[in-house]
Amino acid sequence: MTPVTETPGYQDNEVTIGHDRLSNPSRSEVLVLSTSSQTDRIFLYTKVLNELSNNNIVRVWATSTNDPRFQQLWQDKPAQVEEFPELRPFKEFPYNYLRRLNEFVWDYRQQPPSRLSMARHFRNKQQKPSIRALKVPARALALMKAERSLEDRLERILLSYPRSDAALKRLQTKQPAVILITGPFQFRQPAVVAVAKKLGIPLMALIPSWDNLSTKGRLVFKYDGYLVWSEQTKRELHRFYPETTQVPVYVVGAPQFDVFFDDQFYQSREAFCETQGLRLSSPIIVYSLGSPNFLREHHGALYLAERVARGDFGDTQLIVRPHPAKDNSDIREQFRCFSPRVIVQGQAGDIGTPYSLSQDREQIIEWVNTFRHADVVVNLSSTVTVDAAIFDHPVVNLNYDSEPGQPNQQLVRDINHLWTHFKPIAESGGVWLVNNPEEMVEAVRTYLLHPELHRKKRRWIAEYVCGHLDGRCGERMAQAILDFVDKHTPTQSRNGN
């Protein structure tokens, strides 16, 4: 089924898609940072670099280019692609201690449901006593409403610590009009942010996923502009970072999903089944696993695989899709006995291109067509719910911990009914929440017979999370960056001085 679309030419924050940029004919330089496969796919497989390079110079610093296996992915791109500069971590004391103190203070002040839940179930058990002790002064500072002044001082302290001499040397030699930060919550890119701030280079930050604002640690550094997926993400940005109301925030959609609307990545169902070793005539159930470092979800997939293998759903077949950043060799062995009706999809360990660094074209095609041709998708509260909703395929969402003994039962319930980003999805009526294995089986069986169930709510999920469903988010993202350069950067910066 082809994804739903919007009318082209949507305007947001005075950015118009489908019109040439004529207001600034000078050649500005835009520097883009990418340090993960999720952001690499934006620049490798959407039109963002083509749009940015129209009358501008574009440079990309990407960690994937540091590895010879990925350098060929960047060939023929309309940008000067360079290796990501070397950097050093912060010293544990005082820098990381002050960062934890700052996060505790903001958590006490804002009471974010997702982060508090993660603290109860994970962080409190894993933190060193010296870190937990910071909660005492953090509570006092929160009572004093000192969170903003603390964070401002922390930013100045972190800026004083040189993390990347290589980045400093490069940026002193050639200063861009703007730097796009695509991993503001990650380890590497803030090192470049610190250098850029010292040099007075304008910075834009992409919030790269819908859950980052409510689940990740604090963004200590402040940016001159932001790119977000949706109006909902924009509201969350303003809630968690009140100072962002004073700078431009562009709603551009989710450019990672542009490939879902690009038929150059489409396979026929026949071709897809042939590459996966599936039967063309039989329905396809996809069970998508999350990270094994978080929850041991494969137990639920094992249960469903057993039911599929013995024919409880008729002549159906099951794709088990491991978390793409993990090697699937152990999982493949556990599911071998359910062949041929059950297959474990090839990922990092089999393809030879670790997904955690970047993705080749074959991996993109496999990802797109897995969800394009799925008849039902089963998962536990992950972004694949959105993948399925874009293609209007039913989603069964676990509301229970499938691991024997259910050690994380309350955490799963929290994710579905407390966590900021997923609670609206779980309770939307667009997914079928199941509370035990038998309910999962019944939901899958019903959806196979009636895939039209909950269709309107699935559409709502896709729109709520992604903001735009027209396959042009990369273009919109580029136009937003160029609009920011035109209107919010100094003239000498735009001219490369």
Write the layout of secondary structure elements.
Elements: E1 11-12, E2 15-16, E3 28-34, H1 37-45, H2 48-52, E4 56-62, H3 68-71, E5 80-83, H4 92-110, H5 113-126, H6 129-132, H7 135-143, H8 147-159, H9 165-173, E6 178-181, H10 189-199, E7 203-206, H11 212-215, E8 225-228, H12 231-240, E9 249-251, H13 269-276, E10 284-288, H14 298-309, E11 317-321, H15 329-335, E12 342-344, H16 348-351, H17 361-372, E13 376-379, H18 384-390, E14 395-398, H19 409-417, H20 423-426, E15 432-434, H21 437-449, H22 455-466, H23 473-488, H24 491-494
Parallel strand pairs: 3-4, 3-6, 4-5, 6-7, 7-8, 8-9, 10-11, 10-13, 11-12, 13-14, 14-15
Antiparallel strand pairs: 1-2
Structure, described:
44% of the residues lie in helices and 12% in strands. It is an alpha/beta fold and 497 residues long. It has three domains: 199 residues, Glycogen Phosphorylase B (Rossmann fold, 3-Layer(aba) Sandwich), CATH 3.40.50; 67 residues, no CATH class; 204 residues, Glycogen Phosphorylase B (Rossmann fold), CATH 3.40.50. Strands 5-4-3-6-7-8-9 form a seven-stranded parallel beta sheet, with helices on both faces. A six-stranded parallel beta sheet has the order 12-11-10-13-14-15, with helices on both faces. It has a two-stranded antiparallel sheet with strand order 1-2. Helix 4 packs across helix 7, helix 9 crosses helix 10 and helix 18 crosses helix 22. About 6% of the residues have low confidence.
